């Protein structure tokens, strides 16, 4: 099935990597009619998936509260997923996501009820700081003219050599969408049907991804296509998806101080950090080069675990990259094929970016260990796109990232982004490194990342934005 790229927002198929600067604006509507006029004015400014901008790009997404404020039909509002309707800070969901203790929404800067109800996420990308500043002035003035309140303005950007603040190369492993794939892939690099990430297309279950609907009598301008296999409704979700946004602050100094405290040298600290990540700082995977980094493999992603490293002697089972993408090895499955199929049903399109000033320019770990605390805020704006929040993002976060018995472990959450704590008989603050003849355990891990904000958004197709602009 051919993808309707002209009806999709561009972030679905590209990360705008050539646009180094970006800013995320979190806005709140105050008047429904004026808000629809604002959306109508934004519509021609949106960058679609056919465009390859070299100057700037604009994207938008709505919270459930924002769509409710625009008074969409109740039947439409109810057709969204439960997770989207309830939101990221619903009490049970806080437990599922590990947003407890230090990570509780009560401590967030944005996204909690106390910090103000968010309706719209406006994402602005630009090729340089000057253009970004100009676009911000324009868009903030446009929002103010239509009565929108700017609640938060979140700067973001790219770091040296595609690294994140701990000093490791990031964003190497990305799912490949079948309908967009133009290169041959190996068996290890499987492709995914578009419906895993884009509504209106079939997913891995050979079913159309669940999509919100509009009763046809409300689509007076005939902006929306019919729902596939059910012409009784219009498809409000087609060419859109859900966007998960989490702001994660990184304590770079605590990370390297802890590792130095567990080591006899800087080299050993880097080795232990690489065990936690599953890759060396330059990106080369431990499964392929366990003893030292290999610059030729810095972006290498064509590897698996079942045959190459089943017991985690090269890349520990609890390492970050194995927990967030187990590839073909899950101890809950009896065969390599079953493991690969299970893991494939829980993938996400990641589109996030770091924020904040790096501790040092080139982010070399040996230098990061030497510098004194500067008390500046830095971290990751984690963004992913999924058609099923529960099956994809929430499953990974609950069952793989935070579950302390993942892969047969005992007291280990994800060493980088997991919530580390002791609560009665449950503790999640260890990291196990399989070694011969006896494994090594790192204990009393602090939280190296802390949640500072988050929310679930609907990332609509262009036709759905046009419907909102015309809806009355």
Automatic annotation (TrEMBL):
Organism field: Negadavirga shengliensis
UniProt keyword terms in alphabetical order: Iron, Metal-binding, Oxidoreductase, Peroxidase
Cofactor needs: heme b
Protein's recorded name: Dyp-type peroxidase
Higher taxonomy: Bacteria, Pseudomonadati, Bacteroidota, Cytophagia, Cytophagales
GO MF annotation, one: peroxidase activity
PROSITE patterns in the record: DYP_PEROXIDASE (PS51404)
Entry annotated with the keyword Zinc: no
NADP is among the record's keywords: no
């Amino acid at each position: 099935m051919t993808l309707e790229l002209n009806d999709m927002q561009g972030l679905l198929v590209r990360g705008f990597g050539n646009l180094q600067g970006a800013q995320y604006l979190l806005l709140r509507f105050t008047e429904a009619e004026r808000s629809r006029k604002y959306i109508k004015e934004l519509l021609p400014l949106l960058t679609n998936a056919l465009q390859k901008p070299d100057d700037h790009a604009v994207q938008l997404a709505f919270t459930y509260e924002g769509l409710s404020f625009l008074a969409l039909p109740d039947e439409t509002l109810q057709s969204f997923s439960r997770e989207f309707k309830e939101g990221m800070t619903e009490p049970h969901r806080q437990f599922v996501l590990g947003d407890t203790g230090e990570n509780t929404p009560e401590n967030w800067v944005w996204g909690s009820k106390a910090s103000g109800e968010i309706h719209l996420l406006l994402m602005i990308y630009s090729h340089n700081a000057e253009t970004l500043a100009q676009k911000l002035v324009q868009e903030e003035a446009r929002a103010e003219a239509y009565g929108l309140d700017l609640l938060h303005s979140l700067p973001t950007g790219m770091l040296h050599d595609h690294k994140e603040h701990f000093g490791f190369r990031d964003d190497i492993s990305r799912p490949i969408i079948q309908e967009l794939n133009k290169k041959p892939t190996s068996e290890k690099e499987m492709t995914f049907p578009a419906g895993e990430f884009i509504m209106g297309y079939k997913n891995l279950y050979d079913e159309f991804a669940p999509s919100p609907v509009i009763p046809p009598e409300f689509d007076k301008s005939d902006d929306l296509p019919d729902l596939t296999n059910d012409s009784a409704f219009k498809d409000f979700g087609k060419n859109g998806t859900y966007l998960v946004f989490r702001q994660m602050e990184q304590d770079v100094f605590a990370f390297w101080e802890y590792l130095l405290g567990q080591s006899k040298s800087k080299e050993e600290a880097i080795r232990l950090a690489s065990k936690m990540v599953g890759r060396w700082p330059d990106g080369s995977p431990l499964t392929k080069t366990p003893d030292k980094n290999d610059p030729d493999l810095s972006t290498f992603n064509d590897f698996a675990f079942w045959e190459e490293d089943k017991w985690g002697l090269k890349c520990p089972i609890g390492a970050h990259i194995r927990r967030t993408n187990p590839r073909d090895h899950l101890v809950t499955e009896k065969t390599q094929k079953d493991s690969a199929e299970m893991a494939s049903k829980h993938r996400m399109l990641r589109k996030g970016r770091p924020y904040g000033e790096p501790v040092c320019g080139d982010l070399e770990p040996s230098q990061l260990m030497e510098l004194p605390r500067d008390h500046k805020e830095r971290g990751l704006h984690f963004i992913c796109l999924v058609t099923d929040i529960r099956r994809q993002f929430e499953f990974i976060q609950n069952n793989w990232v935070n579950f302390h018995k993942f892969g047969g472990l005992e007291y280990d959450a994800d060493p980088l982004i997991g919530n580390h704590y002791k609560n009665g008989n449950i503790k999640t603050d260890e990291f196990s490194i399989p070694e011969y003849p006896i494994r090594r355990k790192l204990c009393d891990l602090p939280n190296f990342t802390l949640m500072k904000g988050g929310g679930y958004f609907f990332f609509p197709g262009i036709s759905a934005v046009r419907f909102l602009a015309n809806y009355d």
